[in-house]
Specification:
By secondary structure, the chain is α+β, with helices and mostly antiparallel strands. Helix content is about 20%, strand content about 30%. Strands 1, 2, 4, 5 and 9 form a 5-stranded antiparallel beta sheet that branches. The longest helix has 24 residues. The radius of gyration is 35 Å and the shape is elongated. The model has no long low-confidence stretch (mean pLDDT about 80).
Length: about 190
């Protein structure tokens, strides 16, 4: 009687045995735990890293500034100026200057508007504009008729976004609400 060995079966069994032996040894080696050795000496100081992107640290903002307007304006336009010492030639040429006015409404709370803005209807429409120059901001109010006694914006503030900060974002800050600017640029309300 002649015995014929199946060569394929023998080869498969041989590889399966080696694979099982490999996994068993790997499991034993990797799951062994010993005591930690002594702490080695301190390594050398690493190289200085690249300067990271600036966050909102470069954003400049003012406190709220009381209006410089009288309660009764007897012309069709008026203005007042306040100091903004951070505004320089670089900011004027390449930065972003946002100006906000706020109104304290006993019924609706505090309302904040970005300038320029036109409020009211008909002959009582008031256009609030601003002009920034080195070290100051002028707020102008224009109307078709004598302005008179209106509920004017009572306080103003500015937010300056330097060119290096503004160029790092594709956001159009001039089209954002005050709330969005506060949140994105971390400008406190008060």
């Amino acid at each position: 009687m002649k015995i014929i060995k199946n060569h394929k079966l023998h080869t498969s069994t041989h590889y399966l045995t080696k694979l099982l032996l490999f996994f068993t040894v790997s499991f034993i080696v990797l799951s062994c735990e010993g005591e930690d050795g002594a702490i080695g000496p301190q390594g050398e100081q690493g190289l200085q890293g690249n300067t990271g992107e600036s966050g909102t640290a470069n954003i400049i903002y003012s406190e709220w500034i009381n209006t410089g307007l009288s309660d009764n304006i007897t012309s069709v336009n008026t203005s007042f100026t306040f100091d903004a010492p951070e505004i320089n030639a670089e900011i004027l040429n390449s930065g972003i200057i946002l100006v906000y006015g706020r109104f304290f409404d006993t019924n609706n709370g505090i309302r904040v508007y970005q300038l320029p803005i036109t409020v009211g209807v008909g002959s009582t429409r008031l256009s609030y504009l601003f002009n920034a120059s080195s070290g100051k901001i002028e707020v102008r109010i224009n109307s078709a008729e004598i302005i008179g006694t209106n509920d004017f914006l009572q306080q103003y503030r500015y937010v300056i976004i330097p060119q290096d900060q503004a160029s790092k974002s594709s956001l159009d800050y001039t089209k954002m609400s005050y709330q969005e600017i506060k949140n994105i640029l971390e400008v406190p309300f008060e």
